[in-house]
Amino acid sequence: MLVATLLYRLARFSFRRRWLVATVWAVLLACLGLGALTLSGQLTNSVTIPGTESQRAIDHLKERFPQAGVGGATARVAVEAPAGQKLTDPVNQATVERLVERLKTAPKARAVTDPFQSKMVSPDGRVALVQISYGVQAYELTEGDREAVMAPAGPARQAGLTVEFGGDAIEGMPETGATEGLGVVVAAIVLTVTFGSLLAAGLPLLTALIGVGVGMTGILTVSGFTELNSNTPILALMLGLAVGIDYALFIVSRYRHELSEGHDPEQAAARSVGTAGSAVVFAGLTVIIALVGLTVVGIPFLGQMGVAAAATVAVAVLIALTLLPAVLGFAGRKVLGKRARKQRTRATHGERWARFVSRHRVPVLIAAVAGLLVVAVPALSMQLGLPNDATAAPDSTQRKAYDIVSSGFGPGVNGPLIVVISDATDANTTAAVERVSRLGDVAAVTPPQFNPQHDTAMFTVIPKSGPSSEQTERLVSDIRAQADGTELAVTGQTALQIDVSEKLADAMLPYLALIVGLAFLLLMLVFRSLVVPLKATLGFLGSVVATFGAVVAVFQWGWLNDLLGVKSTAPIMSMLPILLIGVLFGLAMDYQVFLVTRMREEYVHGTEAREAVAQGFRHGSRVVVAAALIMISVFAGFVLADTTLIQSIGFALAFGVLVDAFVVRMTIVPAVMALLGAKAWWLPRWLDRALPNVDVEGEALTKRLDEREPVEV
User: Fold this and answer.
1) 3-class DSSP state of 572
2) Phi and psi of 688, rounded to 5°?
3) DSSP alpha helices (H): ranges in 223-231?
């Protein structure tokens, strides 16, 4: 009862002091906005993990062999002669040489290779490759820098040559656009239909947008003091919008119910926050646990994304508990609208569905589980990787450059491997070059280079296969196995991506065990049952594997690509599975808390177990359906983004919420609850006595208020 009472008091204070509360949030938003404008730093699109072999090799080269320039941004310029011509023809060669001279003036470029001197002209003479090395990392390059390096291609193209650009120096930062706002428009429509009132629909949107504003400006302000991944604010925006709207939806819905019961606006606001607000706190806590748990997997950029998103979710919870009751104080009874009287009729639809599922619980359960397993089948062939030029959109300059280089030299030239020998001598370096040259998937090996101290050497290995292929991944392992007592390491962009993908894959199961274990304890505390938390986590696992299957079918196999606007197929982003596990688990538990707590409330009040399922649905299903549709809409809006990572995250979360809300929580949960009956609420007596009573639905608070017992502010 303590939590519910505190929230009740907080809501009454916010309602009475609404001008003060609104002013505090407005000032906070203004201050953080000013900080974002004046203190924000440059976001990074680099994906590295300290401690991996490839990263250690880069750090060693920076210290002992800085002249090599390894670790900075790179650009590849692919030049192709027209059909029937060669680049070695005098006119074309002169054009390429002028292009190289102009490229040397590119801002922040450290070195530019001449393809005729470096022998990077294809055997048929039609393709040449110019390499540009930068003294800074890719995220330090501005849009002006990228435009400057591509500008010299104009005269060469006018001369009839094809010139395309690839490499991480060309890749810009992911951005959100107007298309992502379509999800908010759909959310507004869902809210209007749900409430039958524009004012009631506008309140969740208003408070959610304020919460997102606070979260995003806070993240941008922090970026001035620490390096943040460029996807960090985008994930925070996704979750902040989704949970911000949903949490406000639950409280506004309860507020309208309390008004319809005859309570004055102040009491209605306080009661709604004391009851539905308690569920918001615990639902938000599960999301925050899942996101903050990303910090323990040893992957810095993923931990940063998790903490930033968790902070945005925490802001959404605080706004729902403070600013929302203050805004309700301004709105009063106007949120009821003309169609409030129809709510009770619409609420019976959920009850009818629950009774249907209860009557046919066994066939419904079998059909739902079988459906999840069928959708999950593609997940068996999931391949993980990180984006490169091969995964870029077919009409992008990066993909065109990749294809030109592949046609002229073979795909391996797009993903060279750098072998570093830290204890180099002439003898062990020569031996290492010979051993590596004999490996099966090696197309070429360059002569070794030594640092001035002659104690560190490096040479480049060109694979026969492309950077995303399994053959190249095996080649990296085979080269590392050739150490033979030598301090040998493999690095380069391709090796870095392989190491990051492997680290992310290894972290997936421990992370899954961590958040499932913590959330099981939390749900056991909320529901005072062993079976319900177990069922909730098993249902979540079903949602996850089904979502993995759908992601593989769309982004790896290419199903529905034209419909969804996905421009290319590629291995699944390495960070997506672990990120999806964390985010989807927190969101799935939201619906578990909001839906099943109403069933428990009916059961503890004496309703028969199976009837309690139907009654719980009568109270909670309509709002849960609306909340799920809103989340799906918000996430689906990001499928229209330009970058594959954002597209895949948006699709995965939208599909995951769809499956979890409608298949797991709205179908499997009532079927299992009806099948188990009263056994679903079993808890050993000794454990029941040991667990504190958190009263997530505020039952004790409601009882006190109904008995006219005062609750002081």
Assistant:
1) strand
2) -60, -40
3) none
